Protein 1
Amino acid sequence: MQLNFLWRWAIVELTATSTTPHLDAELLIADALGLTRAQLYSQPEAQCLSADQQRSIQDIVKRRKNGEPMAYLRGEQEFWSLTLKVDERVLIPRPETELLVELLLKHCPPQKNIKLAELGTGSGAIALALASERPNWKIVASDFSVEALQLASENLQRHGLSNVELRHGDWFQVFGTYEYFDVIVSNPPYLGWGDPHLSSELSLAFEPKTALIAGKNGLEDLEKIIQQARAYLPQSGQLFLEHGSEQASMVTQLFKKYGYQAIQSYADLAGHLRVTSGKWH
Ligand SMILES: C[S@@+](CC[C@H](N)C(=O)[O-])C[C@H]1O[C@@H](n2cnc3c(N)ncnc32)[C@H](O)[C@@H]1O
């Protein structure tokens, strides 16, 4: 079969479930054939595909049609300035989460040797982005998923970053009694069990539920972190948390309840309040 016929078939197949059928088809076919997108465009009508090539393209297009995210199908995702390896072991890093990285770089003086902890690192996106920008920071990144940490470790090696230490365990259990961090940051699970996004966003069905869901209303892990972080923050230490776009006021209340000061919420590029921070006194 000629490449251009299969290409057209792929676009038609993907139109039902993808908002970017042309781009998806291009990337999946280029990956399957080991070509760049430019090479794919050079002579589509002249390229005749083998039966194996045809089958592998049809298989991957069907998986995409069933809603499997592009990042899992391609095995990687861009975050900040890094290309990260991702698969079903971790949540796919979202562009919105870059707001956390941006805020931390802005609020922490670059020359200061900050000690920072990231809780629930998944693919390592936040910790690695910070480590790549601030080689002088000492970063501890943790997760309770061994599989996620294996992937974070692969990403660390891939980018040759030596200032991140990975630890395995439930939230604060990974820290010693008198271990303090200038900054603690987390993008914890924050969807409630019955959150409508879980049924309306097909791609969420493929991501680990333990990375997405936190109790009945999605606030369980956020509250735990806000409450327990106080034992690991020095005077004026800061906690930065990502949360759902409708949770800013509830998260602010939790920061107040546990005695934080200088509480502030920040909007992402779409104008949604996605991050809240507070200072421990
Ligand atoms: C929303 S994902 C964030 C992943 C990554 N930091 C990012 O922003 O793309 C939440 C992460 O928290 C981890 N997690 C969930 N419950 C945890 C717990 N009790 N202790 C430690 N990590 C936990 C999950 O395994 C997952 O990797």
Protein 2
Amino acid sequence: MSAQEAGQSGVHADPSHQAWAAADPLLRVSGVSKSYGGRIGCADVTFDLYPGEVMGIVGESGSGKSTLLSCLAGHLVPDRGEVLFDTRAGGLRDTMTMSEPERRMLSRTDWAFVHQNPRDGLRMGVSAGGNVGERLMAVGARHYGQIRDQALDWLDRVEIAADRVDDRPGAFSGGMQQRLQIARNLVTGPRLVFMDEPTGGLDVSVQARLLDLLRGLVREMGLSAIIVTHDLAVVRLLADRLMVMKSGRVVEAGLTDQVLDDPQHGYTQLLVSSVLQV
Ligand SMILES: Nc1ncnc2c1ncn2[C@@H]1O[C@H](COP(=O)(O)OP(=O)(O)OP(=O)(O)O)[C@@H](O)[C@H]1O
Ligand SMILES: [Mg+2]
């Protein structure tokens, strides 16, 4: 589709939907817009996310990626538009009109949010094991031995040694903190994970390992995810589909490889070529 169509109608007409056409969408986003006073945060964003699908959102700084993600995850209230989520109990539900306790429950169970800065997603005063175990308790786990076992299992999965279980996150490196944040988020088996620049702020070799780890977990758990990044290598590795944002709008969308290998919109071409020049 042309860039203009992508901008106006979202990605519903995107042929890459065929792969997932058999399933109902897990998340249905239509016309989401958010301004800050006169400044556009994001405008008229429309797309469906299918179970097991990873959507990448790329664009330069200030293009509206975080604003959009916050609207989708219920951290910001959009000015217009709808975000429907396929809840286990009640099918597709409007996440904006559901009650606060319902939304909070969703954030604890089916949804997870990985912040760019692990400090925003961890409790710094609580041990590593406590950070993971706390999430289990929030969804009703009570048996101390089982909680500790599961916490240890998850620390192992994110490659944090068992003898660090009682350390606080402040004693961890940036990469370890990010892995701990991922464990804390995934321990409850969410169905949809929002990630805002999960590898931002880490040095390149640490990024690569974290990406490998994330890719393994996403595939193994069949997670659906929305990953915001300005790093095309991240989406190349993790995302099935891609949306390119510029000035708050989606200017191009499609299968990741197609968009990156054969970008149609001038801005995407620029984005791809500027990466090649680095
Ligand atoms: N709290 C806020 N108050 C006012 N304007 C804001 C606020 N948050 C974001 N904006 C504006 O909204 C636009 C989109 O910002 P946003 O943070 O969503 O971009 P981004 O794509 O996530 O950028 P980055 O890659 O730098 O994180 C920018 O023009 C920004 O200045
Ligand atoms: Mg941002």
Protein 3
Amino acid sequence: MDVRLMDSLVGAVFLMLLLSGLGLAEQDPCWTCRNLVNNFMRGIEKTARQNFGGGNTAWEEEKLAKYEGSETRLLEVIETACDQSDFECNKMLEQNEEYLETWWFKRSKDPSDLSDWLCKDTLKLCCPEGTWGPDCARCPGGTDKPCSGNGKCNGSGTRGGTGICDCYSSYGGPLCMDCAVGYYEEAKNESHLVCSECHRSCSKCLGPEDDQCVLCKKGWLLHDMKCIDIDECGTIDRCKANQFCLNTDGSYECRDCDKSCIGCMGAGSARCKKCNAGYYRDGPKCLDVDECDSEIPKCKGLREECVNTEGSFTCVCEKGYSRFGGSCRADPKDDSEKGLFDDITDDEVVVLQQMFFGVIICALATLAAKGDMVFTAIFIGAVAAMAGYWFSEKSDRVLEGFLKGR
Ligand SMILES: *[C@@H]1O[C@H](CO)[C@@H](O)[C@H](O)[C@H]1NC(C)=O
Ligand SMILES: *[C@@H]1O[C@H](CO)[C@@H](O)[C@H](O)[C@H]1NC(C)=O
């Protein structure tokens, strides 16, 4: 099978798996229901004056009144209530069309909120805002202002969720009434809490400056309300062989030694403990050995030459030779793959140029012959330009010939 065909097949299968995976990720039924209701209400709006020109003849008024609460309109609205590709929505619609019908025909008498009536009270897929879970339990902090208004109650308004407060970034605690780690209380009254960031070295502080710390983050040591960076690299060997330790603010990193080193104290070829194979020491540095620069030729094959590389060398074939089964052989003289214009000489290029201009001038001449003033002007201009080009070209050649003593 063609490799590219194979690739695209594999890609298609992968895409299908991915899409079905996304489809399988279960949609919250409450969300599906609310979405369905939104689309349904939009459909009602859209059909409000549809099919009617806005004229108000008695006949039209009467027809409009009939249509308004009709089965016809209900079916039109239902038709647009779900996106065709939205499987969950279509399933829910199919299973609950009778409820929509009930609501539709009683609507004028009881214009209750369809979302609450259908999703919450009838299908029991949703909960009132500020409550969550199968039994619609109250969110932490009460239903009016769950999570103190500083976070989201997980699952609020649905029959799912965990009922736990997901606090906004600067807040913490089960009710989001505290400041998160790394934040301090900038302002607070009974109803509001404003948390601002500590200096990056502290986890608890009284203000934003570096000398207002009460507790330090990991990797820092408290001294006089300041957090001082701990040098983790100082005493213990923390990194693997052939790595060096780099102290950073609040932490440290292990980085690989330069490839010229075996063991090192820092970055670069001047911090090696020992030089790697293929390198020699020159003062503080480990430098690459030029293996090709030696009395004894390193490459012993016929038509081979030595090329130095970092830490080593390779043997390659001389120009015009390529490796076939271990030895260098002359490249076959092959001109079958030459491009279309590779063989063209300068003179031929000139001929091609003239042919090109000739075609354009012919075209312009034809148009000029039809008596069009504009094209006549362009034609004359083109001839003049052509002549100029021709003479300059010629004069160049004459001059060139003259200089060469011809
Ligand atoms: C609710 O919590 C679960 C589990 O922690 C999480 O996967 C989900 O994204 C949360 N939902 C919302 C709306 O934050
Ligand atoms: C608490 O502070 C907020 C903003 O800082 C303010 O809008 C609100 O009126 C204050 N409430 C009380 C009871 O002082």
